[in-house]
Write a structure and sequence with these properties.
Layout (H helix, E strand, L loop, with lengths): L5 E6 L6 E6 L2 E8 L2 E6 L6 E5 L28 E5 L6 H7 E3 L6 E6 L9 E6 L6 E6 L11 E8 L6 E7 L5 E6 L7 E6 L25 E9 L4 E11 L25 E7 L3 E6 L5 E7 L2 E10 L2 E9 L3 E7 L8 E7 L10 E3 L8
């Protein structure tokens, strides 16, 4: 309790200017003011001796206040427009690496097209093949766009026909909520289409059932951007610069909202399960790191096919649940097996949903 330093004062001769105080082998010089010296001592640390003279330590330098920090740089001004996609890629390979294929739609082929009468050096030529899936699309991931300061989205389009519907879709990064808008071109001439970023024009896809969805369009961090073209007949659409703007130009063409049935996607931008019911039933699921799954139903026959990589080797697994069936399927590996034909079949009566699994290489015998 009494081992902490205390401050003492002692009268000394008035002519002393300084005095040296020693206690326990430690000596310190203090100034003398009007015959009094004030010093620090420790109780029970030994006798204290005071003698004249000595050079006192200089008083501590008062701490200098640091100069004020420079002001923070001003926030970047919000430009009247923000580019979402300008298709300025070095090659078709780079373009296709940025805009992913969506296998749950009809086949597509995209390439850079140097059309001179547009704002940029390149446009994207989007060719969609004929098919039976009703829609084709491409998707761009990891966009990280903040469009919260903008009220419109615009794009230059030149379609080969006026029957196919074009859809622009995006996904919020925080709520993983999808929003899309669709329109049907009214001309095959190239023009800029402007669409307000409001719920009057943007809606959630019919398939979307996100658990964290709040029903609010959040433009602060857009993670995925997709382009779709509806139709089964095939055609071409040329896309040029897609951008967001604060206001719509006075002469802007704002199309009437249309409807389209887009394929269901996961939060990572891959195709989720999708069903078509028109006499036959077919569901597809294809995503990175997961097998491709197909269900085919015709009458009372039900087949399920899993295709995937097992230990670096392509295999096909079949599960069959039917009364009478015969299926011939061609399975293909792009890297390890050029192609192989496999077939499975069954006949007679069996327990409903009695099933067996076979590797593709073993699936050529009666079950």
């Amino acid at each position: 309790m009494f081992d902490y330093p205390i401050t003492l004062t002692t009268e000394v001769p008035a002519e002393w200017k300084t005095s040296t105080v020693t206690q326990g082998g430690n000596s310190t010089t203090y100034p003398v003011t009007a015959g009094v010296v004030q010093y620090s001592a420790i109780p029970n640390a030994g006798n204290i001796t005071i003698v004249p003279g000595g050079t006192p330590l200089p008083p501590p330098t008062p701490a200098r206040m640091l100069p004020p920090l420079p002001p923070s740089p001003p926030a970047s001004p919000v430009l009247p427009t923000r580019v979402v996609e300008d298709f300025e890629y070095a090659s078709d390979v780079e373009l296709n690496s940025a805009w992913w294929v969506l296998p749950c739609g009809n086949d597509t082929m995209i390439s850079l097209d140097p059309i001179a009468k547009t704002e940029s050096e390149h446009t994207m030529k989007y060719i969609h093949a004929a098919g039976d899936k009703g829609i084709s699309g491409r998707l761009r991931r990891n966009t990280s766009l903040d469009l919260s300061s903008y009220g419109y989205i615009s794009m230059w389009v030149k379609p080969s026909n006026t029957r196919d519907t074009i859809t622009f879709q995006f996904m919020e990064a925080i709520q993983s909520e999808f929003w899309e808008t669709s329109f049907t071109p009214n001309s095959t001439l190239g023009k800029t289409v402007v669409i307000p970023l409001t719920k009057e024009y943007f809606r959630r896809p019919n398939w979307f059932t996100g658990a964290r969805a709040d029903g609010v369009i959040d433009l602060s961090n857009i993670k995925l951007v997709s382009l779709y073209v509806s139709g089964n007949g095939g055609g071409t659409v040329v896309f040029d610069k897609i951008k967001a703007s604060k206001t719509a130009p006075a002469s802007a063409y704002i199309p009437s909202p249309a409807t389209a049935s887009t394929p269901a996607l996961t939060e990572t931008g891959r195709c989720a399960i999708r069903e078509w019911r028109n006499g036959n039933e077919l569901c597809n699921r294809r995503s990175s790191g997961h097998p491709r799954v197909q269900f085919h139903r015709s009458g009372k026959n039900v087949f399920r096919l899993f295709q995937g990589f097992v230990y670096g080797r392509f295999v096909a697994l079949f599960q069959v649940c039917s009364l009478r069936c015969w299926l011939s399927i061609r399975s293909r590996s792009r890297s390890l097996i050029a192609s192989q034909w496999v077939s499975i079949g069954c006949s007679g009566t069996s327990n409903p949903c009695g099933s067996r699994w076979k590797l593709g290489s073993e699936a050529n015998s009666r079950m």
